[in-house]
Amino acid sequence: MKQTSEVVLEVRNLDLSYDDYAVMRNLNFKILKGEVFIIMGGSGCGKSTLLKSLIGLRAPARGDVLYGEKNFWREDESVQKDLIRSFGVLYQGGALWSSLTLGENVALALELYSNLSASQIQEVVELKLALVGLSGYSQFYPSEISGGMRKRAGLARAIALDPSIIFFDEPSAGLDPINSRMLDDLILQLRDALGATFVVVTHELASIFAIGNNSVFLDANSKTIIAEGNPKDLLANSRDPKVIGFLTRGKK
Amino acid sequence: MPSEKINFDYSIPKTLQIKLTGAWLMSSGIPVVSEITSQFLNRADVVQIAFDTSKISKWDSGLVSFLLGLINECQRRNIKVDRKGLPGGVLKLLDLTEKFTEKIKPQESKQEPFLQIVGGKALQLKESMLSLLSFLGEIAVSLNRTIAGKAYFRFNDFMLIVQRCGADALGLVSLISVLVGVILAFIGAIQLRIFGAQIYIADIVGIAMVRVMGAVMTGIIMSGRTGASFAAELGIMQTNEEIDALKTLGVNPVEFLVVPRILALVVMLPLLTLYADFMGILGGYAISTGVLGINPVEYLNHTRSAVKLSNLWIGLIHSFVFGIIIAISGCLRGMNCERSANGVGEATTSAVVTSITSIVIATAIITFICQVLGV
């Protein structure tokens, strides 16, 4: 699917802090429908804190997170819940519920929010697991599968309700290059098939260049965005030594 | 008409064209595949199905799931499926589900015979006994090395554990012990009042608290508080591979983690028991003198003459044994914890159940021995 000019998520004048300690200041960016948007930066720069603000887990100190016309942190709780339901989130370690099977992990959201019968939910669960290459694994528990499979199962859970925006926190972390590449391919295929927007927090260069078509670069020292655009364009055109250093692994 | 969202068109020879209309969303419900297929699968004139989806207004995975079920059913009956009329996004999703060919056979669930279940449980019991013996052996060796000064022992960590399982528990121990003293005084008063012997409440409260109740109540409190905390702490360390990291550093985890906990609890439980004895007697004293009208000096004199030093030693022996039981139960369950959130929960529950059960059994054994010895 090609990206459009429709803005699905806009961040305006966002400040993030832990009590009095400022993590990021004055963040501004827009994410278009169908984009794979990368939030990148060095370790500890505040990428995950920003992600938490985008998905409703941590209120910002100041500023707005807009989903279409809705200003997430200024809406009442019921609207926030509806918005959250339209997100899918893949956490770093998969964050599967260990007491539930993979099938039950995926089915939970469908049981809560769809109008399907139990057998239809089972069919949708099988479809979602098949989409991530885990057909036949619905009866397995998270402890019985590998780390890469747990990530894919987490992705199946994240796409259970066909979300319009899917957030990824370090999707490649802890994966071997083949599994990492496979997950990148899967992200692109799902983007094309589902027409969803993907927001990916990562510092894995291979993934950034393979899947990203827009990005922001967060800097821990200046506590704000110091570059934005297509990662390949940033590599070719940026003159900021921090951005170039990051994108070339410090070789330039 | 099969469904308000589906129409069948048989106008093309040997082909059934399925026309899908309206919204196909999970939130609004989707038709059941078997109800739809039952209406055409037995028709001999249908050798192929095709789709017309031009009148679909909205769709999501509900449609894809429905189509997947329909296609699988048709393939099982050797009916060809022409996918040309499906939306592009649906085709991509269907392709993606078929891309991963590496499928596994679903696990067969079979009922185990009764004897196999009993045998399995017996083997599990044997394994857990062996694991307990092995753990006790490791503790003995590690304690020996610690006492000999050969083990890596961090005194600051030890003092922190002492604080957590000692001073931090004083509030809870105070509350429970005072209330136990109060309860004992009231129960004693019910019978002793009949004989005009209320002054003997002091004897009952004093002996009961010092000889067994102080130690048992403190043991139960510490099982739920400290034993559970040991199991959860070590269980999470096991889950986070922190214990593996110690092993690969050449540090014996029993020496580093278990021995300080056992020593701390073995030191602190007798001290907490002495404190609980005092608080229990205080509770009984307050009720007896304040509510039941017993003379305070007389109460204290009776307590002093009734509570012998042997009672105190028996109480301390109880508490020493309980300290070992609680620490070993908590540490054993934590160290053997499965690496999952469930595992940590099970380890914690098991630690509390094991230590409380063992405390009751140990109390019965010590009481029996005291009876035999006439102490």
The gross shape of chain A turns out to be globular
Which series of helices and strands of chain A comes N to C?
EEEHEEHEHHHEHEHEEHH
Structural class of chain A: alpha/beta
- What fraction strand of chain B? 5-15%
Helix coverage percent of residues of chain B? 55-70%
Low-confidence stretches of chain B: none
How many domains of chain A? The number is 2
The CATH class of the largest domain in chain A is identified as Alpha Beta
Describe this structure in words.
The complex is a heterodimer of chains A (252) and B (375). Chain A is globular. Chain A is an alpha/beta fold. Chain A contains nine helices and ten strands. In chain A, the strands form two sheets. A six-stranded mixed sheet of chain A has the order 6-7-8-3-9-10, with helices on both faces. A four-stranded antiparallel sheet of chain A has the order 2-1-4-5, covered by helices on one side. By secondary structure, chain B is α/β, with parallel strands linked by helices. Chain B has two domains: 94 residues, Transcription Regulator spoIIAA (2-Layer Sandwich); 233 residues, no CATH class. Chain B contains twelve helices and four strands; from the N terminus they run ββαβαβαααααααααα. Chain B is elongated. At the A-B interface, helix 4 and helix 6 of A face helix 2 and helix 3 of B.
Any key phrases for this structure?
heterodimer; A: about 250 residues; alpha/beta; Rossmann fold; 6-stranded mixed beta sheet; 4-stranded antiparallel beta sheet; B: about 375 residues; Transcription Regulator spoIIAA; 2 domains; 4-stranded mixed beta sheet; 12 helices; 4 strands; elongated
